[in-house]
Amino acid sequence: MNREKFAYSSCPLVKAMTALGSKWKPIIVCVIRDKKVRFGQLAAIMDVISRKVLTDQLRELEADGILIREEFKELPPRVEYSLTQKGLDLLPIFSMLEDWETKYDQQSEVDDLSMHSLQESLVVEKN
After folding, report:
1. Is the pLDDT confidence value at 97 over 70?
2. Same domain, yes or no, for 77 and 126?
3. Which of residues 57 and 3 earns the better pLDDT score?
4. HTH hxlR-type domain location, by residue (predicted)?
5. Which CATH number covers residue 67?
6. What's the Cα-to-Cα distance from 73 to each of 41, 56, 76, 77, rounded to whole Å?
7. Do both 26 and 79 map to the same domain?
8. How many CA atoms lie within 13 A of 74 on its CB side?
9. What pLDDT shows up at residue 12?
10. What total number of domains does the chain contain?
């Protein structure tokens, strides 16, 4: 797996992207945010991801020190996930990424409208 190839890199960006490089990990972090969430709650919220993949992603996030898995010895067994300080520190970064996407997504809509207007004017000129 590529994860092991990059584990010993000295580049901070490579290390960060190795820890967060799947499409699900940032979403998991954003779903958990500043609360404790049980596995079943995560699975229900993220119903497009299989339970196996969710479990694998949670294990990797735990191994990278981004979240804490708290197991309760009761019947039925209960597990809760919460973010470590390292995980909580990602939230402003993800917020900045959301702002970035919103900015350029709106710009894309403006560009599409401009292109549409240009195409209409070309059609009018031809006629």
Report:
1. yes
2. no
3. 57
4. 11-109
5. 1.10.10.10
6. 19, 22, 8, 6
7. yes
8. 6
9. 84
10. 2
Q: How far apart are CA 31 and CA 42, in angstroms?
A: 8
With H, G, I as helix, E, B as strand and everything else as coil, classify residue 76: coil
> And the tokens for 49?
């991801």
DSSP, collapsed to helix, strand or coil, labels residue 24 as: coil
Q: Within this chain, do residues 117 and 102 fall inside the same structural domain, yes or no?
A: yes
For residues 39 and 62, the answer to whether their CB atoms sit within 8 Å is no
As a whole number, mean pLDDT of residues 31-49 equals 93
> Whole-angstrom Cα distance, residue 65 to residue 15?
13
Give the Å distances, CA to CA, from 18 to 2, 32, 50, 106.
9, 20, 21, 30
Helix H or strand E segment including 71: strand 67-72
Token pair, residue 71, equals 């197991």
Q: Would you place residue 23 in the very low, low, confident or very high pLDDT band (cuts 50, 70, 90)?
A: confident
pLDDT tens-digit series, residues 72-86: 998 988 999 999 999
Range of the domain at 100: 90-127
Closest CA to 68 of 49, 55, 87, 51: 87
